[in-house]
Amino acid sequence: MKSALVVVDLQEDFLPSDGSLAVKEGRDIISPICDLLDLSKYNWSTIIATQDWHPHDHISFASQHGVPPFTEIEFKHPLGHKQDGETITFTTPVWPDHCVQNTFGSSIDASFIAKFNQLDDQIPKSIIRKGYLKDREYYSCFKDIWKLHKTEIEDELTKLGVTDVVFVGIAYDFCVMHSAIDCKNAGFNSYVVKSLCKSVVPENDDKTDLSYTEKGVKVLQSVDEYKF
Ligand SMILES: [Zn+2]
Tens digits of per-residue pLDDT, 6-35? Predict the structure, then answer.
């Protein structure tokens, strides 16, 4: 068994108080997540950080559609793929402009990066970017929502012989969730540590928990429940 830790989107735009899409209490999880980088306590084979990385005119921005942020929009499959004669659609909110490439808002929290860099070459580590193709939303760090474009993460985990992947970060109900489900679908054992995540809509966490478990992702309350 080989375990990977994936830290999702600890980026300034998702963090209070100034992030354009700040997730409530998002900074509270940074210090405990940094503690997970202690290799004398946790037997990770690799640690991966993900980074939402959008062009300035990304399709997920409300500003591109002339609607207020958080409006739900129905997107049509870019290749016109159909199911039962109907074009496949994906309905999702559009967001305030966020994580625009090379802006401060797209940068990963400095305290985390400092700790991450201190790992030197003790284990393989990498930063996986997503969301850089302008014409499609990516919540998952594995694929865009249409499952047409894959990032490098799956090949990287496979190359390292990883069997089990533990997710933490932001947001529990969007990017962490879609990443953990795609991870399970890619054939890995997939876990999420709920206490080390924050949600855009925490009121829906019970429903979100079900979305994980229905797709075969194990929800852990604390990392202590994870057996290396
Ligand atoms: Zn985004």
Answer: 999 999 999 999 999 999 999 999 999 999
- Does 83 fall in a domain? no
Whether 9 is a known active-site residue: answer yes
148 is in which domain, residue-wise?
3-55+102-225
For residue 95, being part of any structural domain is answered with no
Number of domains in the chain: 1
Is 196 contained in some domain?
Answer: yes
Domain presence at residue 67: no
Q: Read off the CATH number of the domain in which 133 is found.
A: 3.40.50.850
130 is an active site residue: yes
Report the separation in Å between the CA atom of 138 and the middle of ligand 1, taken as the mean of its atom positions. 7
Query: How far is ligand 1, taken at its centre, from the CA of residue 75, in Å?
Result: 15
Please say if 99 is a catalytic residue. Answer: no
Sheet with 189-198, strands from edge to edge, namely: 125-130, 44-52, 3-8, 164-170, 189-198, 218-220
Please tell me the distance between residue 52's alpha carbon and the centre of ligand 1 in angstroms.
5
Beta bridge partners of 6: 48, 167
pLDDT tens-digit map of 38-89: 999 999 999 999 999 999 999 999 999 999 999 999 999 988 999 999 999 9
CA of 174 to the centre of ligand 1 (A): 10
